[in-house]
Design a protein that fits this description.
It contains 3 helices and 5 strands. The longest helix is centred in the middle third of the chain and has 26 residues. β1 and β2 form a beta hairpin. With 133 residues, the chain is of the alpha+beta class. The strands form 2 sheets. A 3-stranded antiparallel beta sheet has the order 2-1-3, with no helix packed on it. It folds into 2 domains: 56 residues, no CATH class; 52 residues.
């Protein structure tokens, strides 16, 4: 679902942000703008461009802070998924699996271990899919 910001066209102050299917019908004087990836609605500012028109720009300080925060949670989830898949590495479980299934689990766990270094959008990570039982 898309995210929007609402800002005051005079001061360029962001007044509100929200998630919705479309721009809300508003009875205010704010300007409502959809924020598209890779931007994040909490990491933008509104500035006046050289021609005087308002522009949405990324706030690098907020972006760095938010990215670090999201990466922390990605690592936590990654560790939980690795822990859940530990059972696939037990000898008595591996002996009941085909060679192909064992290779799928090895590949999945490798993708999980490498995941934090391969994430391109920490706000919308695409997680590896675990093998079917």
């Amino acid at each position: 679902m898309p995210y929007y910001i609402a800002y005051d066209p005079e001061t360029l102050e962001i007044k509100h942000w929200y998630e919705y299917e479309r721009v809300l019908d508003q009875d205010d004087t704010w300007v409502h703008v959809e924020i598209l990836p890779p931007l994040h609605y909490e990491c933008v500012d509104i500035i006046r461009g050289e021609d005087g028109t308002p522009q949405v720009v990324r706030n690098d300080e907020k972006w760095q802070e938010k990215t670090q925060h999201e990466m922390k949670f990605i690592r936590i989830k990654r560790n939980e998924l690795l822990q859940k898949s530990d059972i696939s590495q037990l000898d008595d479980i591996k002996t009941t699996m085909s060679e192909e299934k064992r290779a799928e689990w090895v590949n999945y766990r490798s993708l999980l271990r490498d995941f934090p270094s391969t994430v391109t959008d920490p706000f919308n990570p695409i997680w590896p899919t675990p093998p079917t039982p």
